[in-house]
Amino acid sequence: MRRQLGRTSGGRVLDVATGHGDFALLLVRSLADYDEVIGIDTDQTSLATARRAAARQGLTQVRFRKMDAASLLFPDASFDTVAVSNSLHHLRDPRQVLAEMMRVLKPAGLFIVREMYRDRLTAAQKSHLLFHHLRSDIDTANGVFHRHTYQRRVLERMYRSLGLTGFRLFDLGAGDDDPRTTEAPRHLIRMLDIWRRRPVDLPGIRLRIEAVEKHIRQHGFLPASSLVGIGRKPRTGKR
After folding, report:
1. Strand 62-66 vs strand 36-41: parallel, antiparallel, or unpaired?
2. Is 199 exposed, middle or buried (0-12, 13-18, 19+ CB in 10 A)?
3. What does DSSP say about strands 36-41 and 12-16: parallel, antiparallel, or unpaired?
4. Could you give the angle at which helices 44-56 and 22-30 cross, rounded to 10 degrees?
5. What is the pLDDT of residue 130?
6. In whole angstroms, how large is the CA radius of gyration of the chain?
7. pLDDT value at position 189?
8. What DSSP string runs through the chain?
9. pTM to 2 decimals?
């Protein structure tokens, strides 16, 4: 990301579905400079975590607001850069959100989209996939919308449909960490233990938990790969 964005001025930046603010803070570290970063999300607890993270780093030009990504409360063409990272699978209508992002982006403004995908994964990355899909099913059973991750080809088609100019597409892999020595496997197994003690009305849930834990213990954990698309809004035509 730093290689792709290190010479880019962000101007006024919007990070959509920011969650804990991780991607907003990555943009702060990656862009050559920026005027302001605003992260929006509907979850107040996540926003509070994001605000604390920005405050710890002394980032006074990074702010977070509660807002629905499908109906952004910003005027047309009010941002120089818009971004969304690993959140499309949390959205009921991702195409509506992408359209709203395009609306608030200035002509020739920078559009950044990143999303993890479920194919072409190593055994250690499959630990992430199995855990994530289990979590999404548990969330759904509890009334929280959370879909499984997309295939890479579906994401590429979605990105290209935006009609961005100067469009670049690249993959972010798992890195070179040892999948067995990071804290992640221990953290995930602790989460599985919590779910084991709090069963939900989901057929075969205990067997799935056991299968996911077995896979993590055998193969360790690395994050699933993600597909990044970067391009600019056309100067005329598409909003």
Report:
1. parallel
2. exposed
3. parallel
4. 30
5. 97
6. 19
7. 94
8. -HHHHTT-B--EEEEET-TTSHHHHHHHHHSSB-SEEEEEES-HHHHHHHHHHHHHTT-TTEEEEE--TTS--S-TT-EEEEEEES-GGG-S-HHHHHHHHHHHEEEEEEEEEEEEBSSS--HHHHHHHHHHHHHHHHHHHTT---PPPBPHHHHHHHHHTT--EEEEEEEE---S--TTTSSHHHHHHHHHHHHHHS--S-TTHHHHHHHHHHHHHHH---PPPEEEEEEE--SSS--
9. 0.93
43-100 pLDDT, tens digit per residue, is 999 999 999 999 999 999 999 999 999 999 999 999 999 999 999 999 999 999 999 9
Please state, in angstroms and rounded to a whole number, the distance separating the CA atoms of residues 127 and 182. 13
Could you report how far apart the first and last alpha carbons of the chain are, in Å?
A: 26
Q: 33 near 103, Cβ under 8 Å? A: no
pLDDT attached to residue 237: 56
Q: What angle do CA 23, 154, 68 make, to 5 degrees?
A: 45
**Residue 138 · residue 171 · CB < 8 Å:** no
Q: Distance of CA 141 to CAs 150, 156, 200, Å?
A: 20, 29, 7
Q: Which of 123, 72, 122, 90 has the alpha carbon at shortest distance from 239?
A: 72
Instruction: Report the chain's mean pLDDT, rounded to a whole number.
Output: 94
228, two tokens: 């990044």
